[in-house]
Amino acid sequence: MSAGFQAVQWNRHKLVYDALVLLGATLWIGLYLFAAPLVQGPGPGVTPEIQRIRAVGTAAFFMLVVILCIGPLARLDRRFLPLLYNRRHFGVLTCLMALVHVALVLSWYHSNGVLPPVVSVLASSAHWSSLPGFPFEVPGLLALIVLMVMAATSHDFWLAFLTPPVWKAIHMAVYAAFLLLIAHVALGAMQSEHSPLVPALVIAAAVLVSALHVAASRHEARPPAAETAGWIDIGPPETIPDGQARVIEPPAGERIAVFRHGGFLSAVVSVCAHQNGPLGEGRIIDGCITCPWHGFQFRPEDGCAPPPFTDKIATYRLKREGGAVLVDPSPLPPGTPVPPLAIEAP
Amino acid sequence: MKRAHRTWHRRIWALLPILLAVLIGAALAVRPPAPPQGEVRAP
Q1: Same structural domain, A215 and A253
Q2: Which of A31, A33, A197, A203 has its CA 20 to 30 A from that of B5?
Q3: CB–CB of B1 and A252 under 8 A?
Q4: How far is residue A181 CA from its own chain's centroid?
Q5: Overall average pLDDT of the A288-305 stretch
Protein backbone atom coordinates (compact mmCIF):
# COMPACT_ATOMS: atom_id res chain seq x y z
CA MET A 1 0.00 0.00 0.00
CA SER A 2 2.94 2.33 -0.24
CA ALA A 3 2.86 4.99 -2.92
CA GLY A 4 5.65 3.36 -4.94
CA PHE A 5 5.19 2.42 -8.59
CA GLN A 6 3.28 -0.76 -9.19
CA ALA A 7 1.28 -2.09 -12.09
CA VAL A 8 -2.51 -2.17 -11.95
CA GLN A 9 -3.39 -4.87 -9.45
CA TRP A 10 -6.51 -6.42 -10.83
CA ASN A 11 -8.80 -8.07 -8.36
CA ARG A 12 -12.33 -9.42 -8.56
CA HIS A 13 -13.89 -6.16 -7.33
CA LYS A 14 -12.12 -4.10 -10.01
CA LEU A 15 -13.10 -6.54 -12.77
CA VAL A 16 -16.75 -6.59 -11.66
CA TYR A 17 -16.75 -2.79 -11.29
CA ASP A 18 -15.32 -2.19 -14.78
CA ALA A 19 -17.62 -4.82 -16.31
CA LEU A 20 -20.67 -3.14 -14.77
CA VAL A 21 -19.58 0.31 -16.02
CA LEU A 22 -19.04 -1.04 -19.54
CA LEU A 23 -22.34 -2.94 -19.41
CA GLY A 24 -24.20 0.19 -18.29
CA ALA A 25 -22.63 2.30 -21.06
CA THR A 26 -23.36 -0.35 -23.69
CA LEU A 27 -26.97 -0.67 -22.53
CA TRP A 28 -27.40 3.12 -22.67
CA ILE A 29 -25.98 3.32 -26.21
CA GLY A 30 -28.19 0.42 -27.35
CA LEU A 31 -31.26 1.95 -25.72
CA TYR A 32 -30.53 5.35 -27.26
CA LEU A 33 -30.05 3.92 -30.76
CA PHE A 34 -33.30 1.96 -30.38
CA ALA A 35 -35.46 4.65 -28.73
CA ALA A 36 -34.23 7.93 -30.30
CA PRO A 37 -35.69 7.26 -33.79
CA LEU A 38 -39.04 6.35 -32.17
CA VAL A 39 -39.09 9.57 -30.08
CA GLN A 40 -37.94 11.83 -32.90
CA GLY A 41 -40.16 10.28 -35.56
CA PRO A 42 -39.44 10.43 -39.29
CA GLY A 43 -37.59 13.52 -40.42
CA PRO A 44 -34.63 14.69 -42.43
CA GLY A 45 -31.21 15.43 -41.13
CA VAL A 46 -30.62 12.85 -38.38
CA THR A 47 -28.71 10.01 -39.98
CA PRO A 48 -27.66 6.77 -38.26
CA GLU A 49 -24.13 8.22 -38.01
CA ILE A 50 -25.44 11.26 -36.13
CA GLN A 51 -27.48 8.99 -33.85
CA ARG A 52 -24.32 7.06 -33.02
CA ILE A 53 -22.47 10.32 -32.26
CA ARG A 54 -25.25 11.41 -29.91
CA ALA A 55 -25.58 7.98 -28.27
CA VAL A 56 -21.87 7.86 -27.38
CA GLY A 57 -21.79 11.55 -26.41
CA THR A 58 -24.74 11.21 -24.03
CA ALA A 59 -23.16 8.06 -22.55
CA ALA A 60 -19.96 10.02 -21.77
CA PHE A 61 -22.02 12.89 -20.32
CA PHE A 62 -24.02 10.70 -17.96
CA MET A 63 -20.94 8.71 -16.96
CA LEU A 64 -19.34 11.98 -15.82
CA VAL A 65 -22.52 12.89 -13.93
CA VAL A 66 -22.43 9.53 -12.12
CA ILE A 67 -18.72 9.99 -11.30
CA LEU A 68 -19.42 13.41 -9.79
CA CYS A 69 -22.26 11.97 -7.68
CA ILE A 70 -20.15 9.15 -6.20
CA GLY A 71 -18.00 11.39 -3.97
CA PRO A 72 -20.82 13.22 -2.13
CA LEU A 73 -22.95 10.06 -1.98
CA ALA A 74 -20.11 8.20 -0.25
CA ARG A 75 -19.80 11.00 2.31
CA LEU A 76 -23.53 11.05 2.96
CA ASP A 77 -23.96 7.27 3.19
CA ARG A 78 -21.21 4.69 3.71
CA ARG A 79 -23.08 2.14 1.59
CA PHE A 80 -21.91 4.02 -1.51
CA LEU A 81 -18.22 3.60 -0.59
CA PRO A 82 -17.69 0.54 -2.86
CA LEU A 83 -18.42 2.84 -5.82
CA LEU A 84 -15.57 5.09 -4.73
CA TYR A 85 -12.81 2.47 -4.60
CA ASN A 86 -12.27 2.24 -8.37
CA ARG A 87 -13.66 5.62 -9.41
CA ARG A 88 -10.46 6.21 -11.39
CA HIS A 89 -11.33 3.26 -13.65
CA PHE A 90 -14.74 4.85 -14.21
CA GLY A 91 -13.01 8.12 -15.12
CA VAL A 92 -10.68 6.49 -17.64
CA LEU A 93 -13.62 4.69 -19.29
CA THR A 94 -15.49 8.01 -19.46
CA CYS A 95 -12.50 9.62 -21.17
CA LEU A 96 -12.37 6.74 -23.68
CA MET A 97 -16.11 7.17 -24.37
CA ALA A 98 -15.60 10.91 -24.96
CA LEU A 99 -12.70 10.12 -27.32
CA VAL A 100 -14.95 7.77 -29.33
CA HIS A 101 -17.56 10.58 -29.51
CA VAL A 102 -14.93 13.03 -30.82
CA ALA A 103 -13.56 10.48 -33.31
CA LEU A 104 -17.05 9.89 -34.70
CA VAL A 105 -17.71 13.65 -34.93
CA LEU A 106 -14.41 14.34 -36.71
CA SER A 107 -14.88 11.50 -39.18
CA TRP A 108 -18.51 12.47 -39.98
CA TYR A 109 -18.38 16.29 -40.01
CA HIS A 110 -14.80 17.35 -40.50
CA SER A 111 -12.87 14.76 -42.50
CA ASN A 112 -13.70 15.78 -46.06
CA GLY A 113 -12.41 19.36 -46.13
CA VAL A 114 -9.00 20.76 -46.88
CA LEU A 115 -8.35 21.65 -43.23
CA PRO A 116 -7.16 19.09 -40.69
CA PRO A 117 -10.25 17.79 -38.79
CA VAL A 118 -9.41 19.44 -35.44
CA VAL A 119 -8.63 22.79 -37.12
CA SER A 120 -11.89 22.44 -39.04
CA VAL A 121 -13.80 22.11 -35.74
CA LEU A 122 -12.26 25.30 -34.37
CA ALA A 123 -12.73 27.22 -37.62
CA SER A 124 -16.30 26.08 -38.29
CA SER A 125 -17.96 29.06 -36.58
CA ALA A 126 -17.12 32.74 -36.63
CA HIS A 127 -19.76 33.71 -34.05
CA TRP A 128 -17.53 33.77 -30.97
CA SER A 129 -19.21 36.91 -29.61
CA SER A 130 -22.81 35.65 -29.59
CA LEU A 131 -24.26 32.80 -27.55
CA PRO A 132 -26.60 31.33 -30.20
CA GLY A 133 -23.80 30.89 -32.73
CA PHE A 134 -20.99 30.19 -30.28
CA PRO A 135 -18.85 27.23 -31.41
CA PHE A 136 -20.11 24.72 -28.84
CA GLU A 137 -17.42 22.28 -29.97
CA VAL A 138 -14.75 24.38 -28.19
CA PRO A 139 -15.96 23.81 -24.60
CA GLY A 140 -16.40 20.15 -25.54
CA LEU A 141 -12.79 19.90 -26.70
CA LEU A 142 -11.53 21.70 -23.59
CA ALA A 143 -13.51 19.27 -21.39
CA LEU A 144 -11.93 16.38 -23.30
CA ILE A 145 -8.44 17.79 -22.68
CA VAL A 146 -9.18 17.97 -18.94
CA LEU A 147 -10.47 14.38 -18.94
CA MET A 148 -7.39 13.21 -20.86
CA VAL A 149 -5.01 14.88 -18.40
CA MET A 150 -6.88 13.29 -15.51
CA ALA A 151 -6.92 9.86 -17.17
CA ALA A 152 -3.21 10.10 -18.03
CA THR A 153 -2.29 10.98 -14.43
CA SER A 154 -4.74 8.60 -12.75
CA HIS A 155 -2.19 5.93 -11.85
CA ASP A 156 -0.70 5.77 -8.34
CA PHE A 157 2.72 6.47 -9.90
CA TRP A 158 1.57 10.00 -10.74
CA LEU A 159 0.00 10.37 -7.31
CA ALA A 160 3.40 9.66 -5.72
CA PHE A 161 5.35 11.65 -8.32
CA LEU A 162 3.20 14.79 -8.15
CA THR A 163 2.46 14.48 -4.38
CA PRO A 164 -1.15 14.10 -3.14
CA PRO A 165 -1.97 17.87 -2.84
CA VAL A 166 -0.85 18.63 -6.43
CA TRP A 167 -2.51 15.47 -7.78
CA LYS A 168 -5.74 16.31 -5.96
CA ALA A 169 -5.68 19.89 -7.28
CA ILE A 170 -5.27 18.61 -10.86
CA HIS A 171 -8.14 16.17 -10.41
CA MET A 172 -10.41 18.87 -8.97
CA ALA A 173 -10.45 20.11 -12.59
CA VAL A 174 -13.21 17.53 -13.10
CA TYR A 175 -15.61 20.29 -12.00
CA ALA A 176 -14.27 22.56 -14.75
CA ALA A 177 -14.76 19.68 -17.19
CA PHE A 178 -18.37 19.30 -16.00
CA LEU A 179 -19.07 23.02 -16.49
CA LEU A 180 -17.48 22.90 -19.96
CA LEU A 181 -19.53 19.83 -20.83
CA ILE A 182 -22.75 21.54 -19.69
CA ALA A 183 -21.77 24.53 -21.88
CA HIS A 184 -21.08 22.13 -24.78
CA VAL A 185 -24.55 20.56 -24.51
CA ALA A 186 -26.40 23.79 -23.63
CA LEU A 187 -24.95 25.68 -26.61
CA GLY A 188 -25.03 22.67 -28.95
CA ALA A 189 -27.73 20.02 -28.69
CA MET A 190 -30.01 22.24 -26.60
CA GLN A 191 -30.03 24.91 -29.33
CA SER A 192 -30.45 22.60 -32.31
CA GLU A 193 -32.96 20.18 -30.77
CA HIS A 194 -36.47 21.43 -30.01
CA SER A 195 -37.41 18.53 -27.78
CA PRO A 196 -37.92 19.62 -24.14
CA LEU A 197 -36.13 16.40 -23.17
CA VAL A 198 -32.66 17.89 -23.81
CA PRO A 199 -32.95 20.91 -21.45
CA ALA A 200 -34.82 18.73 -18.94
CA LEU A 201 -31.95 16.22 -18.81
CA VAL A 202 -29.28 18.95 -18.63
CA ILE A 203 -31.12 20.71 -15.79
CA ALA A 204 -31.69 17.41 -13.97
CA ALA A 205 -27.96 16.56 -14.20
CA ALA A 206 -26.94 20.03 -12.97
CA VAL A 207 -29.45 19.99 -10.08
CA LEU A 208 -28.47 16.45 -9.04
CA VAL A 209 -24.72 17.16 -8.97
CA SER A 210 -25.16 20.53 -7.25
CA ALA A 211 -27.64 19.30 -4.65
CA LEU A 212 -25.49 16.31 -3.67
CA HIS A 213 -22.37 18.47 -3.31
CA VAL A 214 -24.15 21.10 -1.23
CA ALA A 215 -25.69 18.36 0.95
CA ALA A 216 -22.29 16.69 1.45
CA SER A 217 -20.70 20.04 2.28
CA ARG A 218 -23.40 20.79 4.90
CA HIS A 219 -23.07 17.25 6.28
CA GLU A 220 -19.33 17.76 6.75
CA ALA A 221 -19.58 21.19 8.43
CA ARG A 222 -19.34 20.93 12.22
CA PRO A 223 -19.46 23.57 14.94
CA PRO A 224 -16.01 24.49 16.29
CA ALA A 225 -15.01 22.45 19.33
CA ALA A 226 -14.87 23.93 22.84
CA GLU A 227 -11.36 24.82 24.00
CA THR A 228 -9.75 24.61 27.45
CA ALA A 229 -6.41 26.48 27.60
CA GLY A 230 -5.58 25.49 24.04
CA TRP A 231 -6.69 21.86 24.50
CA ILE A 232 -10.01 20.82 23.01
CA ASP A 233 -12.78 18.90 24.80
CA ILE A 234 -13.64 15.89 22.62
CA GLY A 235 -17.01 15.33 24.32
CA PRO A 236 -18.14 12.14 26.05
CA PRO A 237 -15.73 9.39 24.88
CA GLU A 238 -18.11 6.55 25.76
CA THR A 239 -20.49 7.68 23.01
CA ILE A 240 -17.83 7.05 20.32
CA PRO A 241 -18.70 3.65 18.76
CA ASP A 242 -15.93 1.11 19.31
CA GLY A 243 -13.62 0.98 16.28
CA GLN A 244 -14.78 4.35 15.00
CA ALA A 245 -13.84 7.99 15.47
CA ARG A 246 -15.19 11.36 16.47
CA VAL A 247 -13.87 14.11 14.19
CA ILE A 248 -12.87 17.33 15.94
CA GLU A 249 -12.67 20.63 14.05
CA PRO A 250 -9.88 22.68 15.72
CA PRO A 251 -9.84 26.47 15.30
CA ALA A 252 -6.73 26.13 13.11
CA GLY A 253 -5.12 23.24 11.31
CA GLU A 254 -6.40 19.89 10.17
CA ARG A 255 -9.38 18.01 11.48
CA ILE A 256 -8.51 15.51 14.23
CA ALA A 257 -9.95 11.98 14.39
CA VAL A 258 -10.20 10.56 17.92
CA PHE A 259 -10.54 6.79 17.55
CA ARG A 260 -11.89 4.44 20.18
CA HIS A 261 -10.22 1.02 20.15
CA GLY A 262 -11.22 -1.32 22.90
CA GLY A 263 -11.12 0.66 26.12
CA PHE A 264 -8.66 3.23 24.76
CA LEU A 265 -8.59 6.45 22.73
CA SER A 266 -6.01 7.62 20.19
CA ALA A 267 -5.98 10.80 18.14
CA VAL A 268 -4.59 11.15 14.61
CA VAL A 269 -4.99 13.64 11.79
CA SER A 270 -8.21 12.97 9.88
CA VAL A 271 -6.46 13.23 6.49
CA CYS A 272 -5.10 10.07 4.87
CA ALA A 273 -1.49 10.15 3.63
CA HIS A 274 -2.59 8.52 0.37
CA GLN A 275 -5.20 10.77 -1.28
CA ASN A 276 -6.22 13.08 1.59
CA GLY A 277 -9.19 10.79 2.24
CA PRO A 278 -11.43 11.35 5.30
CA LEU A 279 -9.62 9.05 7.72
CA GLY A 280 -12.01 9.94 10.54
CA GLU A 281 -14.84 8.33 8.58
CA GLY A 282 -12.90 5.05 8.54
CA ARG A 283 -12.90 2.16 11.00
CA ILE A 284 -10.37 0.14 12.95
CA ILE A 285 -9.75 -3.13 11.13
CA ASP A 286 -7.17 -5.64 12.40
CA GLY A 287 -6.03 -3.09 14.96
CA CYS A 288 -5.34 -0.40 12.33
CA ILE A 289 -7.23 2.74 11.35
CA THR A 290 -8.43 1.98 7.82
CA CYS A 291 -9.16 4.76 5.34
CA PRO A 292 -12.66 4.44 3.86
CA TRP A 293 -11.43 5.46 0.41
CA HIS A 294 -8.71 2.98 -0.53
CA GLY A 295 -8.04 0.94 2.60
CA PHE A 296 -4.70 2.53 3.58
CA GLN A 297 -3.97 1.56 7.19
CA PHE A 298 -2.27 3.27 10.13
CA ARG A 299 -1.70 2.16 13.70
CA PRO A 300 -3.71 4.35 16.11
CA GLU A 301 -0.92 4.54 18.70
CA ASP A 302 1.79 6.00 16.42
CA GLY A 303 0.18 6.85 13.03
CA CYS A 304 2.53 4.49 11.18
CA ALA A 305 1.38 2.10 8.45
CA PRO A 306 2.03 -1.53 9.41
CA PRO A 307 5.23 -3.06 7.94
CA PRO A 308 6.36 -3.27 5.18
CA PHE A 309 4.62 0.03 4.38
CA THR A 310 6.22 3.32 5.36
CA ASP A 311 3.41 5.90 5.26
CA LYS A 312 2.94 8.00 8.40
CA ILE A 313 0.36 10.46 9.67
CA ALA A 314 0.43 13.03 12.47
CA THR A 315 -0.67 12.03 15.97
CA TYR A 316 -2.04 14.16 18.82
CA ARG A 317 -1.72 14.08 22.59
CA LEU A 318 -4.75 13.25 24.72
CA LYS A 319 -5.25 13.88 28.45
CA ARG A 320 -7.94 13.59 31.07
CA GLU A 321 -8.88 16.67 33.10
CA GLY A 322 -11.65 16.26 35.63
CA GLY A 323 -14.26 14.16 33.85
CA ALA A 324 -13.38 15.46 30.39
CA VAL A 325 -10.99 14.09 27.75
CA LEU A 326 -8.99 16.78 25.99
CA VAL A 327 -6.89 16.73 22.82
CA ASP A 328 -3.93 19.00 22.09
CA PRO A 329 -4.65 20.51 18.65
CA SER A 330 -0.93 20.88 17.89
CA PRO A 331 0.02 17.93 15.67
CA LEU A 332 3.05 15.84 16.58
CA PRO A 333 5.43 14.88 13.73
CA PRO A 334 4.00 12.03 11.61
CA GLY A 335 4.73 8.66 13.20
CA THR A 336 5.22 9.97 16.76
CA PRO A 337 4.10 7.33 19.31
CA VAL A 338 1.48 8.53 21.82
CA PRO A 339 0.31 6.16 24.56
CA PRO A 340 -3.44 5.49 24.12
CA LEU A 341 -5.63 7.05 26.84
CA ALA A 342 -7.87 4.70 28.82
CA ILE A 343 -11.54 5.66 28.52
CA GLU A 344 -12.28 4.69 32.11
CA ALA A 345 -10.56 6.95 34.61
CA PRO A 346 -7.94 5.06 36.68
CA MET B 1 -5.25 19.18 2.77
CA LYS B 2 -4.90 22.42 4.69
CA ARG B 3 -7.80 24.32 6.15
CA ALA B 4 -7.57 26.93 3.38
CA HIS B 5 -7.98 24.15 0.80
CA ARG B 6 -11.08 22.85 2.56
CA THR B 7 -12.61 26.34 2.52
CA TRP B 8 -11.68 26.60 -1.15
CA HIS B 9 -13.42 23.30 -1.88
CA ARG B 10 -16.55 24.44 -0.10
CA ARG B 11 -16.56 27.69 -2.04
CA ILE B 12 -16.28 25.75 -5.29
CA TRP B 13 -19.20 23.57 -4.27
CA ALA B 14 -21.24 26.66 -3.39
CA LEU B 15 -20.20 28.31 -6.67
CA LEU B 16 -21.06 25.26 -8.76
CA PRO B 17 -24.88 25.62 -8.62
CA ILE B 18 -24.63 29.36 -9.37
CA LEU B 19 -22.39 28.86 -12.42
CA LEU B 20 -24.58 26.02 -13.69
CA ALA B 21 -27.76 28.09 -13.25
CA VAL B 22 -26.25 31.09 -15.07
CA LEU B 23 -24.95 28.90 -17.90
CA ILE B 24 -28.14 26.92 -18.45
CA GLY B 25 -30.33 30.02 -17.96
CA ALA B 26 -28.38 31.94 -20.62
CA ALA B 27 -28.55 29.00 -23.02
CA LEU B 28 -32.31 28.66 -22.48
CA ALA B 29 -32.79 32.41 -23.01
CA VAL B 30 -31.18 32.34 -26.46
CA ARG B 31 -32.75 29.00 -27.45
CA PRO B 32 -34.64 29.43 -30.74
CA PRO B 33 -38.38 28.71 -30.62
CA ALA B 34 -39.64 25.42 -32.01
CA PRO B 35 -40.83 25.69 -35.62
CA PRO B 36 -44.60 25.56 -36.19
CA GLN B 37 -46.10 22.12 -36.78
CA GLY B 38 -45.60 21.00 -40.36
CA GLU B 39 -42.72 23.36 -41.08
CA VAL B 40 -39.52 21.60 -42.02
CA ARG B 41 -36.27 23.45 -41.50
CA ALA B 42 -33.15 22.71 -43.44
CA PRO B 43 -30.81 20.59 -41.33
Answers
A1: no
A2: A203
A3: no
A4: 17
A5: 90
Cβ neighbours of B22 in A, within 8 Å: none
Distance (Å) from the alpha carbon of B1 to chain A's nearest alpha carbon: 6
Residue A216 lies in a domain: yes
- Tens of pLDDT, residues A43-101: 666 788 888 999 999 999 999 999 999 988 988 887 888 888 788 899 999 999 999 99
Last residue of a domain, which of A164, A196, A220?
Answer: A220
Is residue A1 domain-resident?
no
Touching check for B4 and chain A: CB below 8 Å? no
Mean pLDDT of chain A: 86
B24 vs A182, A211, A271: nearest CB? A182
Residue A151 lies in a domain: yes
* B16 vs A44, A175, A186: nearest CB: A175
Strands (E), chain A: 227-228, 231-233, 245-248, 256-261, 264-269, 283-285, 288-290, 297-298, 315-316, 318-321, 324-327, 341-342
Q: What does residue A189 show for φ and ψ, rounded to 5 degrees?
A: -60, -35
Residue A307 lies in a domain: yes
Residues 175-234 of A with CB under 8 A from B: 175, 179, 182-183, 186-187, 190-191, 194, 199, 202-203, 206, 209-211, 213-214, 216-217, 221
Give the structural domain span for A83.
12-220
Residues of B in contact with A166 (CB under 8 A): none
- The lowest-confidence range among A19-28, A143-152, A320-329 is A320-329
Note whether A192 and A240 are same-domain residues.
no
What global pTM score does this model have? 0.74
**Which run of H or E residues covers position A192?**
helix A189-192
Confidence of residue A307 (pLDDT cuts 50, 70, 90): confident
Are A203 and A248 part of one and the same domain?
no
Q: How far is B21 from chain A, CA to nearest CA, in Å?
A: 8
Q: Which pLDDT does position B1 carry in this prediction?
A: 44
Model confidence at A342: pLDDT above 80: yes
Q: Do both A268 and A329 map to the same domain? A: yes
Q: What residues contact residue A317 under an 8 Å CB cut-off, 6+ apart?
A: A267, A327, A328, A332, A338
Task: Write the DSSP symbol of residue A19.
Answer: H
